[in-house]
């Protein structure tokens, strides 16, 4: 629902935040990061906010480098999720590593690969809980 001024009709736009990231292909495994915060939540792909001036793919490559120290090449879109309840849209790309090296960035305390089925089962659960 848009906020509209009842006097002049001006619309106060509040657009959803774009979250971009990569699912990195490596023998059907995905790099998973442990984010450093008070709740110690696991993030199943390197992802974060898209920045002004970058495409979705460029943002996903940047975030993967910042969070997982992985130099990647985007292969194709993997999935796109809209979560109107919290005003976010996620675009996750399938990517491959250009070099076999990765390490946690300053926002992550751990980085390692997990089997792709773990990611897919959590994605399925996420869709069941958060999407209409």
**Whole-number average pLDDT?**
78
* Structural domain count: 1
Secondary structure tally, helices: 2
How many β-strand stretches?
9
* CATH-assigned fold name: Nucleoside Triphosphate Pyrophosphohydrolase
Output the structural class. Answer: alpha+beta
What is the CATH superfamily? Nucleoside Triphosphate Pyrophosphohydrolase
For the CA atoms, what is the radius of gyration? 17 Å
The CATH C-level class name: Alpha Beta
Biggest β-sheet strands, sense, barrel: 4 strands, mixed
Keyword list:
elongated; 132 residues; Nucleoside Triphosphate Pyrophosphohydrolase; 4-stranded mixed sheet; alpha+beta; 2 helices
Quick recap of the structure?
Helices cover 21% and strands 42% of the residues. The protein has 132 residues and is α+β, with helices and mostly antiparallel strands.
What is the strand and helix layout of this fold?
Layout: E1 3-4, E2 11-12, E3 17-25, E4 29-35, E5 42-43, E6 47-49, H1 56-68, E7 72-83, E8 88-97, E9 108-115, H2 116-130
Parallel strand pairs: 3-8
Antiparallel strand pairs: 1-2, 3-6, 4-5, 4-9, 7-8
Keywords: Hydrolase
Protein name: Nudix hydrolase
Pfam families: NUDIX
């Amino acid at each position: 629902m848009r906020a509209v001024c009842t006097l002049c009709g001006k619309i106060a736009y509040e657009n959803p935040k774009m979250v971009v990231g990569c699912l990195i292909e490596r023998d059907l495994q995905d790099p998973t990061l442990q984010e450093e915060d008070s709740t110690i939540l696991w993030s199943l792909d390197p992802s974060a906010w898209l920045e002004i001036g970058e495409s979705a793919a460029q943002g996903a490559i940047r975030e993967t480098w910042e969070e997982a120290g992985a130099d990647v090449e985007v292969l194709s879109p993997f999935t796109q999720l809209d979560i109107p309840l919290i005003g976010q849209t996620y675009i996750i790309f399938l990517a491959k590593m250009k070099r076999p090296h990765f390490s946690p960035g300053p926002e992550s305390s751990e980085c390692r690969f997990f089997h792709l089925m773990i990611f897919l089962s959590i994605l399925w659960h996420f869709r069941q809980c958060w999407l209409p």
